[in-house]
Amino acid sequence: MKKLFLIFILSIPAVIIGAFVFEDIGGLLLISWFSLVLGLIGIGGILRFRQEQLLAYELVAGTVVSLQENTRYSDEPEHFREQQVFLNPVIEYFWRGQRYTCGALMNYNEHAYNRFGPKIGDKLSLSVPIQHPEAAIEHKFFARYSHLIIGGWRFQYLSSWQHCC
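-> structure tokens emitted (165 positions)
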């Protein structure tokens, strides 16, 4: 996996240099590379979805026990930099006598969390993979099918892009 990531990182400057060297087809090189990357992301999403479908899940009740705070800063110069705080609910659950914790799929900014986020003490339904009980996910449509949605969206984007060019 590390080797593929290194090849991907090294391909970025190679494609950009190739676009400058071959001016007449440079745009096609960039579009082809971008299409290839989006296609690989789509294939990865669909393969991950298929892999998760093979796992057997068990439904378990979990409780929100705390909030993990993630701070992100804008890319502006230091004295103009904006700070955004995102909250990720930490969920505790018990499965076959053992205690586990996991983070929710969604991070909420402070305003969205106050309106839509689960509060500390709220009960949530979790899908726990029997083979990997530490990898529980919320038992919601988006949490369960996020990889398929992302993979399908990438292929939809590619197919519509190829028709327009």
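Residues 59 and 127 are 5 Å apart (CA to CA).
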